[in-house]
Amino acid sequence: xxxxxxxIIMGSKSDLPVMQEAIKFLEDQEIPHEVSIVSAHRTPHRMxxxxxxxxxxGIKVIIAxxxxxxxxxxxxxxxxxxxxxxxPIKSSNxxxxxxxxxxxxxxxxxxxxxxxxxxxxxxAGILAAQILGATDKAIAKKLDAYKKEMxxxxxxxxxxxxxxxxxxxxxxxxx
Length: 175
Ligand code: RP5
Description:
Helix content: 40-55%
CATH class of the largest domain: Alpha Beta
Radius of gyration: 19 Å
Number of strands: 5
Distance between the termini: 49 Å
Oligomer: single chain
Number of domains: 2
CATH topology of the largest domain: Rossmann fold
Structural class: alpha/beta
Bound molecules: 5-O-phosphono-beta-D-ribofuranose
Shape: globular
CATH architecture of the largest domain: 3-Layer(aba) Sandwich
């Protein structure tokens, strides 16, 4: 794979099972990415180094996942003008997940973090690809194919459900 354009970081190795969804999407689509652990609280200098050096290394979008007092995405966003996508994680130190969501979502004006749903790493991967796809035709083409496949799967499920005999209230488009 060529030079990574998407940087995926997370506060702890314990976040990996959730963040794996973003990694898998980018792997499946063959979009070059890098993965590391960077903790806002336990390795603050590493976080500064990562955020400040990302653009120079060719990174165009950063995905940052964290749980509980989830400061990583916001702090990284404060240190770079690259787009940052935050993934709130329901972690062991999280009360119920809202703490992670609000820590990432409620950023002050001037420092945006595009926050996805709780444990919503897959959408973070897709959104990062879409940001690149705004100017990269090859990535846009892959995303078109992904969307088409998604649509076909739903249509296939609809056909299956309808053929099981749940026809009482059949949603007959145009019928
Ligand atoms: C956060 O604390 C991490 O992002 C992780 O979600 C959470 C728990 O970390 P560990 O105690 O499992 O390392 O900073």
